[in-house]
Amino acid sequence: GCSACYQIRCTDPKLCNKSGATIVVADFTQNNQTDFVVSRSTFSSLAIAKKGPRLLKSGIIDIEYKRVPCEYKGQNMVVKVDQSSQYPYYLAVQFLYQGGQTEIVNVDVAQVGTSEWHYMTRNHGTVWDIEKPPGGALQFRFVVTSGYDGKWLWAKKSVLPSDWKSGGVYDTGIQISDVARDICNACDDNDSAWAESP
């Protein structure tokens, strides 16, 4: 769920507007509950005009939610070198500004100018890592869900310089706008696509 975009709306018609708010999931829990913890301003934006304070006072509310494509207009996907990385022995990365409605399901890394690809492992959430990464400037390729299948995307230019730094953010030159399709046609109907939070 991390990095996925959702539209959420509360279910009390006396307090809540119908459009709700779009959020990006930044973390998740290990239990079976579905909770969205949002900022005070996002929580208020769920309310009908002038009902924000009353909605805030309620604290916890019932919501409906559905997955929607992420939109980062004019923003390429970037690679952020995770703080846990230790140059040159261990590399952990996150992909930020992943547009569309897709999931990254496979990541490979190679030294620029070679065809020797090394598989990265999903460590947790959106973090992918590799021990003993290739030396030199690095490029990435990955599989994202797209349509009913997956497709390879390749950041062909040098993405990470040979002296990459922990915490560094590097442009991939790629923009993703694909939308993964659901198998059920009923999910395309506006009302049936919403799920209720327990």
UniProtKB/TrEMBL annotation:
Annotated Expansin-like EG45 domain residues: 1-75
Domain Expansin-like CBD: 89-172
Organism superkingdom: Eukaryota
Gene Ontology cellular-component terms listed: extracellular region
Parts forming coiled coils: none
Matches recorded under Gene3D superfamilies: Expansin, cellulose-binding-like domain, RlpA-like domain
Family: Belongs to the expansin family.
Name of the protein this chain belongs to: Expansin-like protein
